[in-house]
Every structure is written in structure tokens, then in C-alpha cells.
Write a structure and sequence with these properties.
single chain, alpha+beta, three-stranded antiparallel beta sheet, 20 helices, 14 strands, 48% helix, globular, binds zinc ion
């Protein structure tokens, strides 16, 4: 029993799992039909057909998402409560409203009447989708943990078993454990959901999904259709990786490209999702890596996808050309995913080291590129030999470029001009604001990000407020010098 839904009686969802491509299994209440907003789309292994459906899906999202931003309260309408691995999550469906025996689905196209059973099917399918994403993420990341543990063990003259024991070992005087300090993620499936309190299924201006402080997650109908067409939960997996504090918690998450890390595995499943592989910006570094290490030019193939534009009516797809490239594309995507797994394993062996590499080089993608360069040889210029010959021949220029780059290395970045830290600060400001603490108070105190947000997320709001207040005012335990037994004090018991 993996998920239990507490609406309309206790209902148990059993999940059927398939390796790789998942064929559609609808919850019982759906009576063999997909939920209403998936109709007209099919799950398919035909990649060109999937690519075509993805375009139609984006077009369809205009009707449920054409508003710049929804003007409604996101928690109006219907809701449901789900339990995933013992963790309760409220799911809100603001686009749906039950009136008597009819449930209306509101979009920019108007109100569509549904039966109560049709809406039950929507809820159950949604819960099943989230469950599938949790399990698939766990499956992927279990391998990363294994590899990271092995590599840490090899580097420290330990056995993998001893490393696992070390990670789980508590440090009572700090109310934490070694895993939390070393940041090697020893994962359980629940880690992909246990920080999440609310999930919204709502109109989001485009084909969007979103995570806030690893606590609130939202998906638009378009993203559910996306995962349905492809047959694997790409978008749901991506968002739940963001929601996993062991993988993307602060401060590690602030110093590396977490979009890339949440895309490397979910965006590169087989058969390749052509839309995502060729057009999703989160893969821009992997595109570069493909060119440098695999002589595979994504931009060149992308140019050949369409022949000409019909004015205002879209472009003419070059089906034959795409078909010709398919096997090479799938090979490239498979290679990227495999390399992504190795990169993540290496990164999570010593995240502190790699975020320092990013920070010093003023580039959140540096860890990815350095690890890739350590794993593969460059082949961009007609094979490895030619490429190395070129590099050696132009070693003087390479050296002066490298010197220029290194001259900036190690210099600290100004907070005011650092977009990433600004963003982190903004998030904290919004969180503090929700707790009734002004931005001025927060800024006055400055280096507020010594605090880890995953501590706050799982905490009772009153306790969080109390801690944030004492932190800002320098009262209580926060007034003491660093190194005091901060978290063991009675006033601040972290869960
Ligand atoms: Zn993301």
C-alpha cells in the first residue's frame, strides 16, 4: 500500500510499475477512461507523434492558462487529502467547483460540467501521478546515493557500510547527524514529499509548475498532459526533486544550478522527449557537453526541425529529417542521462567542495562542467586526436584566456549584484513577511542565510516564528558565540 486517499471513503491506490515507458493505468473510478482534460491526447511511443502532441498541448494550455496570472484564491474550489508514505498533503483544485451533483471545471474557455465520478477520477489520477513521481525519483536517486557512498568510502579508506552508518549517526550536541553535515543524501522515498504541505492543480499562465521553499508545489493541467503523452512523469519528478531538502536544501541549493540537477535525469528518459531535449533551457549546459564530448550539435539539428513558417499559423515540421536523426538523438540523450547520473554521484560525494568550485569560479554550472571534463575527453573538432592537437597548438591563447578567468576566481561576489543570492534573499524575505517580520528587520540583520530553510519547513509555524524572531533580534541562543551548543538548548528544539 503506497498511497491512501481520504476522500469519498478510504480508498487504496495500487500502483503498477513498468520499467521505462509507463502505459496508462487509470484508477478504478475512471472506468478505463483518462481524466477529462487528457482526452484528445494519447500516450505514445511514437516520438514524432509525441512531439506533435506536445505542441497541441501547449496550444490547449491557452484555454486553461491564458490569464497572465489567475485572479482567484488558489485554495478555493475543491480539495482532497492524500497520504504518501505516511505524510499528509492537501491538494487543491481551484479550477473545480462542485454544485449539487455537478462539478464545474472553469477555464478561460468557460465552465465545463462534469459528473462527480469524473472529478473523482481527476483526483485519483493526480494522486497516482504524484506517487509515481516519488517512486521513480527514489529509484533514480538510490543509484546516486550508492555511487556517492562508494566514492566517499574509497576516498576515506572506509567500507560503504561504515559510511552509511556514519551518515545516519546523530550529533546530539547539535541536534543533527553526520549526513546533514556531509550532505551525502541517504534517501527514503518519503524525502521527495515530506517537506510538501500543499499541492495546487491550477491554471498557471502557461505550461508551468512551481515549488516554493520545498513546501508548496503547483502544477498546471498542461504539465499533467505532458507527462501523460510521454508516459513517464518528467515534470512531477522534476518538481519533487526541488522539494527534496536532502538533495536541494539550502545552502547547497543556492550555490549550484538546481534546475540543471533536477533536469538531468527526469528530462532525459527513453524514448527521448524531443520537445524537452531540443528546446528546454535547463538542458543548455548538457547541450554544450554533448558538443564538446560527443560531437553532437543540438543547435544544428534543431534548425532542421522546421522547413518554413505559415504566417501566424505555425511552422511546417520536417518529419522525414527528424525521423532520420531519431536513433542518434536517443543515443545522445541516453549518454547524457548516464553521464548525468555520474555527475550527480560525484557532486553528492562532497557537495561542499563542488559548491565552493561554483562559488569561486562565479559560475553555478562549473561543477557540472569540471566533473564532465574529468569523466570524458573532448572530441568537438572531428574526434579526440584532432581536438587535442588543436588545444596543444593554441595552448598560449588557452593559457591567456584561463589566466583572465582565474584572475576573478576567489574574489567574493557582491550581494547586490549577485542575482542568485538576491533570489535566495527574496525568498527569505517573503517567508519572513508571512511570519510578520519586516524586510527592514531582515536586511538589518544581514547574513540571514546562515539559517537552513529545511529546518523551517518541517516546523510548527509558531516555533518557526519564535526562532526567526530570536534570530533577528539576536536574543536567546542566537546571541551566543558560534560553536555554543546551539540546537541543544531548550528554547530551540529542531525536529
Ligand atoms: Zn525547476
Amino acid at each position: 500500500m503506497k498511497a491512501r486517499m481520504l476522500i469519498g471513503g478510504l480508498m487504496v491506490i495500487f500502483l503498477v510499475f513498468f520499467a521505462g515507458n509507463v502505459s496508462a493505468e487509470w484508477p478504478k473510478v475512471c472506468e478505463g477512461q483518462p481524466p477529462h482534460y487528457l482526452r484528445g491526447f494519447t500516450q505514445t511511443n511514437d516520438q514524432i507523434d509525441a512531439f506533435k502532441q506536445m505542441q497541441l498541448n501547449f496550444a490547449a494550455s491557452r484555454s486553461d492558462s491564458s490569464l497572465l496570472r489567475a485572479r482567484w484564491a488558489s485554495n478555493i474550489g475543491e480539495s482532497a487529502t492524500f497520504i504518501f508514505y505516511g505524510h499528509t498533503v492537501s491538494i487543491y483544485f481551484p479550477m473545480y467547483q462542485r454544485l449539487g451533483n455537478v462539478v464545474y471545471y472553469y477555464t478561460a474557455a468557460g465552465a465545463t460540467p462534469l459528473t462527480v465520478e469524473e472529478f473523482e477520477c481527476v483526483k485519483e489520477d493526480f494522486g497516482q501521478w504524484i506517487q509515481q513521481a516519488i517512486d521513480a525519483n527514489y529509484d533514480d536517486h538510490r543509484r546516486i546515493t550508492d555511487l556517492a557512498v562508494e566514492s566517499f568510502a574509497a576516498g576515506n579508506n572506509m567500507t560503504p557500510d561504515a559510511v552509511r552508518k556514519l551518515i545516519a549517526r546523530p550529533i546530539p550536541e547539535y541536534g543533527t547527524n553526520y549526513g546533514d553535515v556531509l550532505k551525502i543524501p541517504l534517501l527514503e522515498p518519503a524525502d521527495f514529499i515530506k517537506g510538501v504541505k500543499h499541492i495546487y492543480f491550477t491554471s498557471m499562465s502557461s505550461c508551468n509548475a512551481w515549488v516554493y521553499l520545498q513546501t508548496i508545489v503547483a502544477f498546471s493541467p498542461c504539465t499533467r498532459r505532458w507527462d501523460y503523452i510521454m508516459g513517464y512523469p518528467t515534470v512531477a519528478k522534476h518538481e519533487l526533486i526541488h522539494a527534496n531538502a536532502k538533495l536541494q536544501g539550502f545552502p547547497i541549493g543556492w550555490y549550484s544550478n538546481m534546475e540543471l540537477f533536477a533536469a538531468l535525469l527526469p528530462f532525459l528518459e527513453q524514448p527521448t522527449d524531443l520537445e524537452t531535449f531540443f528546446y528546454h533551457g535547463y538542458l543548455s549546459k548538457p547541450w554544450e557537453a554533448l558538443e564538446v564530448f560527443g560531437s553532437f550539435d543540438v543547435a544544428k539539428i534543431r534548425k532542421e526541425f522546421f522547413r518554413y513558417d505559415v504566417w501566424g499559423g505555425g511552422s511546417a515540421m520536417n518529419r522525414e529529417v527528424i525521423a532520420e536523426y531519431l536513433s542518434e538523438i536517443n543515443k545522445a540523450a541516453e549518454w547524457l542521462r548516464e553521464s548525468g547520473l555520474k555527475v550527480l554521484a560525484k557532486f553528492y560525494t562532497d557537495p561542499h567542495f563542488w559548491v565552493a568550485v561554483n562559488d569561486m569560479s562565479h559560475d553555478d554550472d562549473m561543477a557540472y562542467m569540471v566533473i564532465m571534463a574529468g569523466l570524458y575527453e573532448p572530441t568537438a573538432l572531428g574526434g579526440h586526436d584532432n581536438t587535442v592537437r588543436f588545444i596543444l597548438k593554441h595552448s598560449d591563447q588557452s593559457k591567456s584566456i584561463a589566466d583572465g578567468a582565474w584572475s576573478r576566481v576567489g574574489k567574493s561576489r557582491s550581494l547586490m549584484f549577485d542575482e542568485r543570492r538576491q533570489k535566495a534573499l527574496e525568498e527569505l524575505v517573503r517567508f519572513a513577511d508571512a511570519l510578520g517580520i519586516s524586510k527592514e528587520e531582515l536586511i538589518r540583520k544581514g547574513r540571514a542565510y546562515g539559517f537552513r530553510s529545511e529546518h523551517l519547513e518541517n516546523m510548527d509555524l509558531d516555533l518557526a516564528r519564535e526562532i526567526l524572531r530570536s534570530f533577528l533580534s539576536g536574543d536567546g541562543v542566537f546571541g551566543k558565540p558560534i560553536g555554543s551548543k546551539l540546537l541543544q538548548e531548550k528554547e530551540v528544539r529542531l525536529p
